[in-house]
Amino acid sequence: MKTRGKSDNSNAGSDSKGRDVNEEVKTKTKCLTPKKSNPLGMTEHEMLLALDETGGRLRKRKFAQSYHVDMKQCPVSGCDSRGHLMGRFERHFTLAACPIYHNLTPERCRANHEANERLRKDQAEDAGRDQVIVHHNTRNQTEVEATPSQTKYRKRVQRSREQHSSSEHRKSDPEHQAEHGVKEPLLNHVASEYDLNLFRQAQALASEGLEHELERLHESGLLSQDGSNPDRRIKVIEIGRYEMDTWYSSPYPEEYVQLPKLYICEFCLKYMKSSTILRRHMAKCVWRHPPGDEIYRKGTISVFEVDGKKNKIYSQNLCLLAKLFLDHKTLYYDVEPFLFYVMTEADLTGCHMVGYFSKEKNSFLNYNVSCILTMPQHMRKGYGKMMIDFSYLLSRKEGKTGSPERPLSDLGLLSYRSYWTDIIISYLSKLDAAADLVIRDISQETAVHPADIVSTLQALQMLKYWKGKHIILKKQDIIEDWLRKQTKKPAEFSSRAIDSKCLKWSPTRQKE
Ligand code: ACO
Ligand code: ZN
Known about the structure:
Elements: H1 21-24, E1 29-31, H2 44-54, H3 60-66, H4 106-137, H5 148-163, H6 172-180, H7 193-219, E2 236-239, E3 242-245, H8 254-257, E4 262-264, E5 271-272, H9 275-284, E6 293-298, E7 301-307, H10 312-323, E8 338-347, E9 350-360, E10 367-369, E11 371-374, H11 383-398, E12 403-404, H12 410-430, H13 439-446, H14 450-459, E13 463-466, E14 469-472, H15 476-488, H16 491-494
Parallel strand pairs: 2-4, 10-12
Antiparallel strand pairs: 1-3, 2-3, 4-5, 6-7, 7-8, 8-9, 9-11, 13-14
Helix pairs in contact: 4-5, 11-12, 12-14, 12-15
The protein binds acetyl coenzyme *A and zinc ion.
Residues 3, 20-22, 325-326, 369, 371-374, 379-385, 404-405, 408-409, 411-412, 414-415, 418 line the site of acetyl coenzyme *A.
């Protein structure tokens, strides 16, 4: 589980040095008021096949997006990337530009290119002579006649087309396919040499453009080395009254990932493609709170326990949503071994999700939180610590100590470090001056794992190794600072404390 390139380091105090991670995490949350021309004489199928396979303009974009492209090596088996269909480059890296794929050789491509260049030059010279003749004739001319070069050109095309017999070589195609595997179909029977040459030139131009485009995308970072687009992710979601930018990618189905915005029902978490579909859904959706049992309620705050097995779709949708704000690999589909604790705030329209945490039903390592998320519109208002406190309340009820699953994200570490500091300092501040501070006692009373207490004391520089023993320094200045900070917190933060009396839950409830 790694987030924004940083992993948990229990001794790392860096995040508590006042660095505001929000500056790094740029989240914008907005509250919303409530048949084809066929010049080559090919059959349509043949033409499509040739264009499709060679990455002609028609398919260019799709090719770039959907094929894995090694920017150095041609994907055609047996090809060493030498030559280019265009004939004037030393190397290629796409099937579209591969001489072998087009049943040619690099040398043949170069020879074709040189012949075409010569032809172009001749034509340009002929056209130059035409201009002189046309200039001389303009005075008497009444009717526009073909120039000598145009006549020469027309005759050459006619001759070339007469030579072409459409039935020629047709039968050799299946043999070719069997012999050469996945290659372009043999085109020599499809059109005259002249037309085919024109087509080859168009293919070559398209392949040049395609490789150029791929290189450009690669250089600009829009295409990774394996050809996948690293930036393909849902960037904006609309959920409830909020529209927000996402932070990371989430494995929503392919057709949703390409949308400019994803619309999510804030109650059942179903995701949709448009605001119209969402509007229609909201008119029909009967959900006004998460599924499962409401195990906690105080004021407008409730916590619902959702069983991943009983509410599989909801739990999967919750994981997909959470992944948009979590960098690490989280579970998406295998939700059955988990319970989800969804915290909501109620108003007249329903219980709106403020955040959630997931917890393994049977954690071998005694993790009491697997993943935790506060919805971005509710971050930094104390809900994160409230959910953390709630997770420890459940652990206390279970008679266990717990710890969050590792590694923690930057924000996860910040929040846990702050929570553990609160726990330890509040404990110390109430402790009799003469009394001994024993880590096991704090752990038993708070359900915080001893290792987390030790790492927090170290981060606070309150743990010292002296004469072969670890001793805790009760630093009065730190305690006073902490007490002062508490008084400065906005009033609504204190109302966001978990009240254990409001929990209606027992650990004996069946957990499969
Ligand atoms: N910059 C600086 N400090 C911050 C920031 C921030 N962006 N966000 C939270 N904090 C501090 C707060 O100041 C507070 O400390 P304080 O009481 O000493 O002032 C503490 O962290 C907790 O703040 P809350 O408001 O209670 O936390 P919040 O509701 O914002 O939720 C959470 C914290 C859940 C980590 C949230 O940031 C989040 O969902 N992040 C994205 C998902 C994520 O990273 N989850 C944790 C993964 S690790 C795991 O799942 C086990
Ligand atoms: Zn719904």
